[in-house]
Each structure stands twice: as C-alpha cells, then as structure tokens.
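Intended use. Records like the one below are meant for learning the mapping from a protein sequence to its folded structure. Do not use them to infer anything beyond what is encoded.
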Amino acid sequence: MRTTLSLDDDNTKRLERLRKSRGTSFKEVVNDVLRQGLNAVEAPTKRREPFRTKPVSLGRPLFTDLKEFMAELDEESDRKKLGL
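Structure written out for the chain above:
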C-alpha cells in the first residue's frame, strides 16, 4: 500500500540514522520500526504481583510524648547556646 505520511523531525532523524547504520532503504526501516512498535502495543500485558513491603522492627521508640521530646530539644539547644 502506498500512502503519504508526515513525520516529526526528531523521528525522521532517528529513522535516517537507523537506515544508514543498517544499510537499507528508508521504507524498510520505517516498516521494521512500525512493526516492532505495533507488536509491542498489541502484546498482552503481563500481570504482575502487587508489590509488598515486609515490616521491620526498629526497636524502642526514641520518645513517646512529642511535647516532652520537643522540650528536651529546646533545653539542649539553650545549653549549647550558653556553652554548658
């Protein structure tokens, strides 16, 4: 089948590079690339198992009361400022 096709400049450059590297005609390169693309699009998608993470114990928490922890940080910061 003969048809007219408008290609974007970036695709034309890539196809031309392929043509030169393969030493074939532009028509052959376009048909090969189009065939590969259609095969990839039409191929059934593989069903993957959902990704699962395993819980890991990180040990005892550093603090249980956020207000208390923040107060300790403020006290430590004050001591550093005073050079204690």
